[in-house]
Amino acid sequence: MKATDMMSQDTPWREIHTLLIPAYLETWIMVSLVMVAVLSVGGGLGVILFNTSRYGLFPKSSLYHLLSGITNVGRSLPFLVLMAAIIPLTFWLTGTTIGIPAAVIPMIVAGIPFFARLVENALREVPEEVTAVGIVSGGSAWQIITQAQLSEALPAIVAAAVVNVIAMIEYSAIAGTIGAGGIGYLAVVYGYQRFDNHIMIATIVTLVITIQAVQFAGDRLVAALQPKQRRS
Amino acid sequence: MITVEHLSKDYISTRGQRQVILEDISFNVPSGSITAVVGPSGAGKSTLAKCISLLEKPSRGRILVEGTDLTTLFGEALRHQRRLIGSVFQSAALLQRKTVWENIALPLQWLGVVSHQITSQVSQLLESVGLTNKANAYPAQLSGGQQQRVGIARALALNPKVLLADEATSGLDPQSTQSIIELLKRLRDEYRLAIVLITHEMDVVRQAADAVAYIEQGKLVQFGQVAHLLSSPHSSLANQLFPLTPLPSSKPLEVSLRYTDKVTTFDWISRLRKQGIGVDILAAHLENVAGSLVGRMRIAVSPPINFDVEQFVRQLSEWGLHPDHPLSDSVFQEAG
Question: Pick from B231, B263, B288: which residue ends a domain?
């Protein structure tokens, strides 16, 4: 008992917010930056994946399999391994290997293929005739993709984005091990390396509440986007 | 009017084998008429539908609408000419997150039609299919038949000359099927549409079709007016359109008759009775098809003494009843 007390230097509860709130904001900055790239690039890749597959607007088997293979590679590596493996790329792009900029790059690299696959699946869930209807209604590729395919798949895509946000919050915490900042960094440096139980508990509670809130808000949004079922 | 000319479609399988789906299909659907395309499943009906709706390019042959060959077009030109053909899908395939109004307006918006014209055209189409009061409903709030009406209205939005309905009534209850058929017939007359109705339901063919094309294993086996097809002997289509399950009979002579629009003498039973020939009807399936009484009938005959079979069969042929008696073929040829 004594030994533990000696080693642990719990931050007083009253002071926790001075560490927690900046870290929490950092986490959201990272996740927001990453999500902007993931939604645009990953979403675009998902649309291309779907439309080069045999269900899509321009089936092109060879291109589909190439893109699909690349997507799989991106999804094969556990995030910690990926983060270490692409350090040269990260350094080349950001000029550093630590901190928020260094964490954002591997998160984007991991997030894009993840979201692309989710978008492809969401589009595949839309009845096959929707694309055919778009074609026979004289739509351009852009009109069909945006106003028929994506519009019909929107609830599923939003649900996929929610899954992705939660995964990115998780990844940001893993990125804490390379000094990324944010709540994961706080948990690693204070909670783990300094045995600061108060910080550990505070970060856990914060993360649990955050994930619950994101999922709840996401579910509400998805429900609001679902097609109307009954007469109102 | 749409003309399908020597249409063939084949696929090269991954093993390099050529698989023929459609072979040398030719037919013609005039404006203001409905042609049903029927055939067993796997006959190539849906591939034909995809070729006609220009979703797939035929391997050989042409599809002409009002004289324009649509199979040579691609890209923007194809997109532009697509409006000649409206397509109705089996599941109606409405966009679930858009209202009825938005679904019908979509092709017009994509074409860039000005909004006040979209408004007036969509309301006219809604009135045409009888759904004016459902304009702001979502597809999931409609019955299957109502959804299909929206699908038809959407297909008509760009003012096509041809309407392709691919199994448009499959999966609907009989009452909805009936009302969709009535709607198609009305639209045929109102807009002078050439309607291609791809279906496996013989009820639909009897009630809706002016002409029928029968496809089997990718080939056009029979094509013609429903009433005329009945008069060609050994027509498998006649049997499918007007199936019969006759009662057993002990009479020595049984004859099958085919009623077509060529029947001239409707009081033939009483005329035969006057000659002393009794007729029992064992089974009959007669319907009003495009304004004529057509169908099939199986009768048993009680012959009098001195009965002349040849004379009897010839007389039935003269009345336009097309007897299917072993003797009738030769007699019929002589008569014809």
Answer: B231
pLDDT digits (tens, 9 = 90+) for A172-205: 888 887 777 888 888 888 888 888 888 889 999 9
pTM for this model (two decimals):
0.85
Write the CA distances from B287 to A63, A212, B94, B203, B291, integer angstroms.
56, 66, 35, 11, 9
Strand B60-65 to B211-216 pairing: unpaired
Mean pLDDT of B204-229: 89
Q: Are B242 and B304 in contact (CB under 8 A)?
A: no
Q: Is residue B9 part of a domain?
A: yes
Kindly state whether B136 is in contact with chain A, defined as any CB-CB distance less than 8 angstroms.
no
Chain A and chain B share a number of CB contacts under 8 A equal to 75
Q: How far is A134 from chain B (nearest CA, A)?
A: 8
Output the pLDDT for position A107. Answer: 93
Closest alpha carbon within chain A to B92: A129
Residue contact B111–A138, C-beta within 8 A: yes
Q: Which helix (H) or strand (E) holds B285?
A: strand B278-289
What is the ipTM score, two decimals?
0.84
Calculate mean pLDDT across residues B69-84: 87
> Hey, are the CB atoms on A140 and B111 less than 8 Å from each other?
no
For residue A132, give the nearest of B55, B86, B107 by CB distance. B55
User: Regarding the domain with residue range A21-223, which homologous superfamily does it belong to in the CATH classification?
Assistant: MetI-like (1.10.3720.10)
